[in-house]
Write a structure and sequence with these properties.
The protein has 22 helices and 14 strands. With 700 residues, the chain is α/β, with parallel strands linked by helices. The strands form two sheets. Strands 2, 3, 4, 5, 6, 7, 8, 10, 11, 12, 13 and 14 form a twelve-stranded mixed β-sheet that branches. It has a two-stranded antiparallel ribbon with strand order 1-9. Helix 10 packs antiparallel against helix 15. The protein is globular and about 65 Å long. Keywords: Glycoprotein, Hydrolase, Lipid degradation, Lipid metabolism.
């Protein structure tokens, strides 16, 4: 039952009168910001707010009290016009549901009965049967979603709906979309969240003209690494929830970053005692894994700590595994994209992660790589079992629970392990420090950034070609340490046939923590590496980093690989979406460990504006150009002539091969929106007004 149903009654007289009131004087900030804000345009906030609450015979009193509070808060004498009407879901702060707590013994990997068909390592020569079966279901869902998407995204006069219907009988003719969210700590999580929010049709008003809602529902794949993997973890382990629900201001909700991850969550008591309890929980979980005979590393503690900030579960969701995503009914029904978390391998005997390092992926069914160094995948659910030569010996048990969701996203962001070394300088109790010292005892400084996968699932697998085959433990590190900070690797595999990748880059490549294309350069150079590490994958040509800055390719979205005939092999078109200051300086340090709700919301809003080019106010054809990028490879396969609008878009956004490698001045872009500070203040204002309205319910 709607929580407001208790207050239903005849409020039509008062609300009707309110609805007819003129908007009154509007603060200049709000007059300018509403054209940029994701909620779009709106009517009188107060009348819409109360109409949706349906408060009944309390209406007159609440109107007076809420009007007074709003007037006091905003300095406005009358009703105000602000972006869009509020959805009651935004007010009720519905709880975020979770995935499956299916680990047999919390964080401790545990022996279980093996299935009749014992798990084994498979060759990476083709996709898994799980993925191919799932794709048959998912592709049907993406067709429906694309038809909805192109219902509000127009590609000139071209009838995209009719085109999709015409080719619906052959899914290989239809567009295949991937989205990649870069690393970069909390900056990457929040900026990436803004893009995902813009792409999500569930976001209020995201399917209006000038917006891109529905792109997420149309995508087949979604990848993340480091900070981007935290975003994926928050979305998927919380049952593919929305960004709106993750960023509520409700106490105890998921994304509360005011306390740093070093302090731990605010449990309502003295913070030192709260922190002590937090670290005791972390220590107990990791100690249990060690006592069960598994090697542990700082990544175990880091992953457990991340879980408290990313998952809506008590004690950070000890029993939630990454493989549980595959068991959720919605994922099995193909209702949302397939997620990848990306990490790197550290070659035996090496400390530096180079361009020839192995790139691993975690998907809901498997862990492994297409790289020739291993060229195999192991069932993720049974990671921790003692595989040998690709099979599980008959005298070995099956192990489950190793793939803790926190450990997976912690592995992808193990660079942040360095922060845990600060613990010994704090005033925390000695028993907590003892746990850290015990873990650090066997580690030298060069091992602080690793995640230990014990036992190595690829032990003696492909012995003739794998440098990891003789290793009892597998060292896995942060997915961005090889320079490929945008997780493109899973999406450029030829077997997946991805047509277009929306690459959201929140990297801190420059002095002022803005991206300059370094990640794309690294992926392109890897595709040309003479060692053969690319293993047949191709990537569109991109210019050097100086050219990215000098030609403005870091200040707005750019397309790479528009001409598929000019590629070294089959490769997707890449829509590069770099972080930039549209309305907020979203270039916070990668190592900033806390942010209040106001800054969090501002960075998410800025990310939304970056992805939509301020709801197409900076380019009225932006959504059409996105549509052209999606359809481009499909048009080639079906022999369809590009609509004129697409030729115009490609002239505007496709890199044309021009290079300017002159060393630029320090890249420090100014705000792109003239009224940026209005946009910055809006989320806090809206929250204040909503809180004021809700408070009135308790006063009447």
């Amino acid at each position: 039952m709607n929580r407001w149903s208790t207050y239903q009654g005849n409020c039509s007289g008062t609300l009707g009168a309110l609805a007819k009131l003129p908007a009154g004087p509007v603060h200049k900030d709000f007059a300018s910001v509403h054209k940029y804000h994701p909620l779009g345009h709106g009517n009188s906030f107060l009348s819409t707010f109360l109409a949706q609450l349906k408060i009944g015979h309390y209406c007159d009193l609440i109107v007076m009290k809420t009007s007074a509070l709003i007037s006091i808060a905003l300095g406005l004498p009358g009703a105000i016009a602000v972006p869009g009407a509020l959805d009651t879901d935004d007010i009720t702060f519905a709880g975020v549901q979770r995935a499956l707590p299916n680990a047999p013994d919390g964080y401790v990997p545990t022996s279980v009965s093996c299935p009749a068909s014992r798990p084994r390592v498979r060759s990476a020569a083709k996709l898994s049967t799980n993925e191919t079966s799932w794709l048959e279901v998912r592709r049907g869902k993406t067709l429906s979603a694309m038809k909805d998407f192109f219902g509000h995204v127009k590609v000139g006069d071209f009838d995209v709906g009719a085109y999709l219907d015409k080719h619906s009988g052959n899914s290989s003719s239809l567009p295949n979309i991937g989205i990649a969210v870069s690393g970069g700590g909390w900056r990457a999580l929040m900026n990436g969240a803004g893009a995902v929010k813009a792409f999500d049709s569930r976001t209020y008003n995201a399917t209006a003209t000038g917006h891109l809602g529905g792109l997420l529902q149309s995508a087949t794949y979604l990848s993340g690494l480091s900070g981007g993997s935290w975003l994926l973890g928050s979305i998927y382990i919380n049952n593919f929830t929305t960004i709106d629900k993750l960023q509520t201001h409700e106490a105890g909700s998921v994304w509360q970053f005011g306390n740093s991850i070093i302090e731990g969550p605010d449990a309502g008591g003295i913070q030192l005692l709260d922190s002590a309890g937090y670290y005791k929980d972390l220590a107990d979980a990791v100690d249990g894994k060690k006592k069960a005979g598994f090697d542990t590393s700082l990544t175990d503690i880091w992953g457990r700590a991340l879980s408290y900030q990313m998952f809506n579960a008590s004690n950070g969701g000890l029993s939630y595994t990454w493989s549980s995503i595959a068991d959720t009914p919605e994922f099995q029904d193909g209702d949302y994209p397939m997620p990848f978390v990306v990490a790197d391998g550290r070659n035996p005997g090496e400390l530096v992660i180079g361009s020839n390092s192995t790139v691993y992926e975690f998907n809901p069914w498997e862990f492994g790589t297409f790289d020739p160094t291993i060229f195999g995948f192991v069932p993720l659910e049974y990671l921790g079992s003692k595989f040998e030569s690709g099979s599980l010996p008959s005298n070995e048990s099956c192990i489950r629970g190793f793939d803790s969701a926190g450990f997976v996203i912690g592995t992808s962001s193990s660079l942040f392990n360095q922060f845990l070394l600060q613990i010994n300088t704090t005033s925390l109790p000695s028993f907590i420090k003892d746990v850290f010292n015990d873990i650090l005892f066997d580690l030298d400084q060069s091992q602080n950034d690793i995640a230990s996968y014990d036992p190595n699932p690829f032990y003696k697998y492909n012995e003739h070609s794998s440098p990891y085959a003789a290793q009892k433990l597998l060292d896995v590190v942060d997915g961005g340490e090889d320079g490929q900070n945008v997780p493109l690797h899973p999406l450029i595999q030829p077997e997946r046939h991805v047509d277009v990748i929306f690459a959201v880059d929140s990297s801190a490549d420059t002095d002022y923590f803005w991206p300059n294309g370094t990640s794309l350069v690294a992926t392109y150079e890897r595709s040309l590496n003479s060692s053969g590490i690319a293993n047949g994958t191709a990537f569109p040509a991109v210019p050097d980093q100086n050219t990215f800055i000098n030609l403005g390719l870091s200040t707005r979205p750019s397309f790479f690989g528009c001409d598929s005939s000019n590629q070294t092999g089959p490769s997707p078109l890449v829509v590069y979406i770099p972080n930039a200051p549209y309305s907020y300086h979203s270039n916070i340090s990668t190592f900033q460990l806390s942010t209040d709700n106001t800054e969090r919301d501002n960075i998410i809003l800025n990310g939304y504006e970056v992805a939509t080019m301020a709801n197409s106010t900076l380019d009225g054809n932006w959504t059409a150009c996105v549509g052209c990028a999606i359809l481009s490879r499909s048009f080639e396969r079906t022999g369809t002539t590009l609509p004129d609008i697409c030729n115009q878009c490609f002239d505007r956004y496709c890199w044309n091969g021009t290079v300017n490698s002159t060393r630029p001045e320090s890249y420090d872009p100014a705000f792109y929106l003239a009224d940026s500070m209005a946009s910055v203040s809006l989320p806090t204002m809206l929250s204040t007004v909503v809180a004021a309205g809700l408070a009135m319910l308790h006063l009447v």
